Amino acid sequence: MEKTQVLHKSRVETRQLATMGMMVALAYVVTVLTRFPLMSAAPFLKYDPKDVVILIGAYLFGPLAGLAMSAVTCFIEMITVSEAGFYGFIMNLVASAAFVCPAAFVYRRRRTMSGAIWGLALGVAAMAATMVLWNYIITPIYQGWPRDQVAGMLATVFLPFNVIKGVLNAALTLVLYQPVTNALRRSHLLPALPDGSVRRSYNMGALILGLFLLVTGVLVALVLTGTI
After folding, report:
1. Using an 8 Å Cβ cutoff, are 127 and 99 in contact?
2. Per DSSP, what are the bridge partners of residue 36?
3. Cα 102 from chain centroid?
4. What is the number of H-type helices and E-type strands within the chain?
5. 185: closest CA among 52, 19, 62?
6. pLDDT, tens digit, for every residue of 113-162?
7. Which residues of the chain form beta strands (DSSP E)?
8. Nearest residue to 95 (alpha-carbon basis) of 35, 151, 60, 50
9. What pTM was computed for the model?
10. Side-chain half-sphere CA neighbours of 97 within 13 A
């Protein structure tokens, strides 16, 4: 019996690592293919939805797994496509961790739709506040700008960028979480539900809220880029 339990635990851990590795790869591909500037006033601030993929993994496996996936994804990005080097790695990792870890922590304690929504709200707020502080510290060093100039951009550039980024990520997470988990269960990368099935219904409240936030975020981003 003990040997069977050890083998089962080993299989579960292997399956979890394989799923996390797949999500890191997907997050990297998303970063490479979908990165674009959100604000015409700051074209060096670029949005990509990699944190959506990482957060879905963190909802499944916990905040520490989310932190690990964030670190690996940001490191691969640094050594391949990033133009910002080590500073970019640090800022990417801090932003991802500030969004993913609080959201996953809340959801791990309260695995309900309200827990997911509160976690997302906390993640958006934590990332926005954290990145205001870190941009004040790091951006003058990286960009070579006077700190007073950066301070003047905190409320008008860095805060709006991170709020819109967080809202878009939260909206995409609400829309994509259940379809992604269903696909993972069909692929046997996640265990089946207790009755052996795959959940086919969708929480319409989450879908409507996610789509509303997504449309709102896209419209605000289009305004900020001067498209409309």
Report:
1. yes
2. 47
3. 11
4. 8, 2
5. 19
6. 888 899 999 999 999 999 999 999 999 998 889 999 999 999 999 999 99
7. 36-37, 46-47
8. 50
9. 0.89
10. 15
Strand (E) or helix (H) holding 149: helix 147-153
Helix axes 85-109, 50-61, angle to 10 degrees: 40
Beta carbons of 131 and 114 less than 8 angstroms apart: no
How many CB atoms lie under 10 A from the CB of residue 151? 13
The strand pairing partners of 37, in sequence order, are 46
User: Structural domain boundaries of the chain?
Assistant: 2-31+47-224
DSSP code of 180?
H
Q: What is the pLDDT of residues 149-203, one digit of tens each?
A: 999 999 999 999 999 999 999 999 999 998 888 888 888 777 766 555 445 555 7
The pair of structure tokens assigned to 106 is 């809340």
Q: Which two tokens stand for residue 147?
A: 């700190």
Q: Which CATH architecture has domain 2-31+47-224?
A: Orthogonal Bundle (1.10)
Report the alpha-carbon distance of residue 116 to residue 83 in Å, rounded: 34
